[in-house]
Write a structure and sequence with these properties.
Layout: H1 2-17, H2 22-33, H3 38-44, H4 54-88, E1 89-90, E2 93-94, H5 109-123, E3 127-128, E4 134-136, H6 137-140, E5 170-172, H7 178-186, E6 191-200, E7 212-222, H8 227-242, E8 248-255, E9 258-267, E10 289-298, H9 300-310, E11 321-328, H10 329-337, H11 350-357
Parallel strand pairs: 3-6
Antiparallel strand pairs: 1-2, 4-5, 6-7, 7-11, 8-9, 9-10, 10-11
This protein binds 3,4-dihydroxyphenylalanine.
3,4-dihydroxyphenylalanine binds at residues 175, 177, 217, 255, 258, 294-296, 324-326.
Length: 358
């Protein structure tokens, strides 16, 4: 079988080298590499070889196939360029040369996730606000009711920008929540906005952390806004994003800028989205729930910060109320695309990006 393989390969290579037209090349390709070729038939006979010979024969067949394929390619290019040089080059331009294939660009999966989230909230009448990536301490922390030295600051390991001004240092924003203050500084209630954007924390990259990540913040302020408005909104959002059978649940939590605060879970995309919680589901560790965001009712102290900045009482916490929420875009994209390592989003491997686009 080894002898037959090498004579087959030699005759294929010789015939290809002397082929005169691309039609001839195509019929050689079919007869040597096609489904009904002798090479394929030889491969089927692999079973009759003794076990220790099988891998060697498999490798030899692969090798022969590779050689034939690359000779075919070479000869095809030779024929194309000689055909062009004989009759088709006009004014030094070869109009017969195959063009370069320009792959169309694709939106990055994080961008398309942000767009999906935006679309859902735009339908609910929300506006979109954006703010600076370089923030100051007051917007990022103090005005959001994180007093200096409060332990809640430790949860957000921060990049400060030198020179560090002791009273209000500049930093890379650790969340999109500072936009709550910026939006209230320039908009009067009632309003509903979302804020997509890039956020930063001094975390070492691993499967679930990255020093750069993305969030979408939400803020609604009006008179008589209640927790049930928040629940209804997030429940609608989860059903639109994940599917009509998905539910959310609220777990009590703490954020300095909301009171009461909650962490919000959605039914597990892997098991309970199918209607049946699996005790050995690796995605939700058998709980049936996955955390997707933090939320709560705007803390009166945050309204007071807005009043201080504006110098009026438009956001008097006795008159207005509101809810806020913040979600991690990477987390949502990982859940919707079934990705288990966040680093994939930032490594720019085009195979990963193309896989998600299809
Ligand atoms: N800013 C919080 C974080 O990055 C997320 C968050 C929680 C935003 C609750 C909110 C909220 O608006 O109400 O951890």
């Amino acid at each position: 079988m080894f002898d037959r393989l090498s004579s087959l390969s030699e005759s294929a290579l010789a015939k290809i080298s002397s082929a005169k037209t691309s039609e001839e090349l195509e019929s050689l390709r079919i007869s040597y590499l096609g489904k009904k070729s002798e090479l394929k038939a030889l491969l089927k006979k692999l079973g009759v070889l003794p076990a220790e010979e099988k891998p060697r024969f498999g490798a030899a067949v692969n090798d022969a196939v590779k050689k034939i394929e690359s000779r075919l390619l070479m000869r095809r290019q030779e024929l194309l360029s000689s055909a062009a040089s004989v009759k088709k080059i006009i004014g030094g331009v070869d109009y017969t040369r195959p063009g370069f294939i320009q792959k169309p660009g694709l939106p990055h999966p994080l961008i398309s996730t942000i767009e999906k989230i935006q679309k859902i909230f735009l339908r609910l009448g929300y506006g979109i606000a954006e703010g600076p990536d370089i923030e100051d301490d007051q917007h990022n922390f103090s005005d959001l009711n994180f007093p200096t030295d409060h332990p809640a600051r430790d949860a957000q390991d921060t990049f400060f920008i030198e020179p560090i001004h002791a009273d209000n240092p500049l930093l890379l924003r650790t969340h999109t929540s500072p936009l709550q203050i910026r939006v209230m500084s320039c908009l009067n209630p009632p309003f509903a906005v979302i804020v997509p954007g890039r956020t930063y924390r001094s975390d070492a990259p691993d499967a679930t952390h990255s020093p750069i990540f993305h969030q979408v913040e939400g803020l609604v302020v009006d008179e008589n806004i209640t927790m049930s408005d928040l629940k209804g909104t997030l429940s609608f959002f989860a059903k639109e994003l994940f599917g009509p059978d998905f539910k959310i649940r609220f777990r009590p939590s703490f954020f300095p800028f909301t009171e009461p605060s909650a962490e919000v879970d959605v039914s597990c995309v892997s098991c309970s989205g199918k209607g049946k919680i699996s005790s050995d589901c690796r995605v939700c560790k058998g709980t049936g729930w996955l955390e997707i965001l933090g939320a709560g009712m705007v803390d009166p102290n945050v309204f007071e910060s807005a009043c201080r900045r504006r110098g009026d009482r438009v956001y008097d916490p006795e008159k207005v109320s509101g809810f806020a929420f913040g979600m991690g875009v990477e987390r949502i994209a990982m859940l919707t695309h079934n990705i288990d390592d966040m680093r994939n989003f930032f490594e720019n491997d085009s195979r990963f990006l193309e896989m998600l686009a299809s």
